[in-house]
Amino acid sequence: MPKQISRLIHREISWMHFNSRVLQEAEDHTVPLIDRIKFLGIFSNNLDEFFRVRVATLKRMIQLRNKNKDYLDYNPQKIMNQVSELDNELQEKFQHIFSGIVKELEAEKIFILNEQTLSAKQGLFVRQFFRKQVRPNLYPIMLNHSPSFLLRDQAIYLAVIMEKDGHPLKDKFAVIDIPTRTLSRFLLLPSKGDSQYIILLDDVIRYCLDEVFPMFEYDNIEAFTFKFSRDAELDLDNDISKSFMEVISDSLKKRTVGDPVRFIYDREMPLVLLNAVAKKLNVKARGTMHAAGRYHNFKDFMSFPNIGRPALEYKALPPLPQGDLEAAKSLFTTMRKKDIMLHFPYQSFHYIIDLLREASIDPNVRSIRMTLYRAASNSKVINALINAARNGKTVTVFIELQARFDEEANLQYTEMLQDEGVRIIRGIPGFKVHCKLLLIRRKEETQSVYYANLSTGNFNENTAKVYADDSLLTADPRLTAEVLKIFELFEANYKQQRFKHLVVSPFGMRDHFMQLLKKEMRNAKEGQEAWAIIKLNNLVDDKMISQIELAARQGVKIKLIIRGICVLNPSDKEASENLEVFGVIDRFLEHSRLMIFCNGGEEKYYITSADWMVRNFDNRIEVAVPIYSKEIQKELRDIIDIQLKDNTKARMIGQDHLNTYRKTDTTKPTRSQYEIYRYFQKLHPLTSKS
């Protein structure tokens, strides 16, 4: 039996620590100013989703534990209190960082104005914009006259109070939806000399409130921002008369009336107005209401305009060519010769589009099979699949309808593909297909030859520009035959298959990697070299954590590179001497999962779609791919070695040195993402297609 695992950090607390690392990027003065603002937006967007999903789940657990105290092995109320405490600390830090950035913008002669700081000329410009663009999009709700109303998630509102002679007018409270779905959050005002000016849409409306409510007799009118988040968990019913698409669609409708989990409001809002809004929305104060600053929904700041110098943003790093593919007339011919690994965003995603495009018009291609989890808006991947179907190919697609917050888009893509003759494989509630697979069957001479793409990230040309992922192109029959087995598994109602090369969950992935760690332990015991390098987004599964700690205690050197949640907290000296845990937060989102095991000198390499979490091992179809190509193994090892040297954007994970910047043996600064980009510049110099 493995030794009892050390005290773990609760996953929700670990996630808060991760988002704190994101906030560090907004605080880092070596990051360009506009990108620091964008990191504030990323932090805010992360937090929104966290409250809608994880905090909502905590609230459910609190209710469950109150009914049955023996059901849970932890106190969800205690965790909720810790989350609230950390949230308050981070919100205070957030506001401090934002205030500092505003001052730095002013030093660059970029000024964020509000309704009280506009000049008369700027005020005239704002009113003209309001009348033409904003007012047609405003539909105020008179609070006391409305029996009930629903608020959208991911939206911001103004609560309006009208007063006369210093007293609120009876029945003169209103709510206005700030129309950021149709208009930009930021209005650029005319420049003055070399000074640039911006006003937020919230303040445009505040400035023109008199034109929204001209019929009421008041001598003072004010508006205060608030934001509302609901429980976003989908409750799937078991009505067998409904198709799965109908079940998902109905559940999405229920999401709009989910229980409130977070109500953020301007702390300057008068109490009488706050109480009126909260009562109408059925928001109760305990653990739900949070006083904050003047502006909310900072996720919009991810699109903050750069109206200053180019130096205020990161210099573009255009995707680099992959030499073998760039010179290829046919990607199939190239893939038959050798396996190829693409590394996004360092290299271009357009090779995947090119592969699909070639497959769609190649007369020898018979079929295309693909899994889709998150596709881009106006997806080129979807268009290529439709084109293939129109060209007579048999196209089969598994679209995961339960991809969180992409359910509605995936429903629409499902209908679009079906209308074009694409066969859709349906999922089942509670069981997600998270692996990223593409399989193309091509008739060559007298046999069928299969070509596959197995990736750590989504088939999404937009996220591929900022998500760091690895994507294998292969015609190796050892791998392609087993990719075919996975698609057959989908089509045969998840009948279990046997795999010799691919590692597939929920059919033994956890056990496979535990066995590899056990082998490292045996080698360490025999005095051989023993080590493992494991790169993940999230490490939560307690069985794997127990195995990692046990291996470290027995002399296996383990490096863990974890971007997000890591509940492992090595607390005893014996384990921590052989175990290092850190994560990299930088301009690209580290998204690839990669494992390398020493294996007695015969190193084993895997890329995978799966994090090491219970859900990935037990409740999803995930795939880990062994990398057999020595050339690609060297690429992966070179990349990992660069990341292991990072002492600029790498932070330590664990209670003792939580989120402190990592130090290495050298004082020379190493920023791994930039070094990796330079590595690929040298590896594949720019070539043109022959």
Q: What can you see in these coordinates?
A:
The structure is a single chain. The protein is α/β, with parallel strands linked by helices. It has 3 domains: 11-241 and 261-312, Polyphosphate kinase middle domain (polyphosphate kinase like); 323-501, Endonuclease, Chain A (2-Layer Sandwich); 504-683, 2-Layer Sandwich (Endonuclease, Chain A), CATH 3.30.870. It contains 20 helices and 26 strands. The strands form 4 sheets. Strands 14, 18, 19, 20, 21, 23, 24, 25 and 26 form a 9-stranded mixed sheet that branches. Strands 10, 11, 12, 13, 15, 16, 17 and 22 form an 8-stranded mixed sheet that branches. Strands 2-4-3-7-8-9 form a 6-stranded mixed sheet. It starts with 10 loop residues before the first helix and ends in a 7-residue tail after the last helix. The relative contact order is 0.09.
Key descriptive features of the protein:
690 residues; disordered N terminus; alpha/beta; Endonuclease, Chain A; 3 domains; 8-stranded mixed sheet; 20 helices; 9-stranded mixed sheet; globular; single chain; 26 strands; polyphosphate kinase like
Short description:
38% of the residues lie in helices and 22% in strands. The protein is α/β, with parallel strands linked by helices and 690 residues long.
CATH homologous superfamily descriptor of the largest domain:
Polyphosphate kinase middle domain
CATH fold label of the largest domain: polyphosphate kinase like
CATH architecture term of the largest domain: 2-Layer Sandwich
* Largest beta-sheet details: 9 strands, mixed
Q: Helical element count?
A: 20
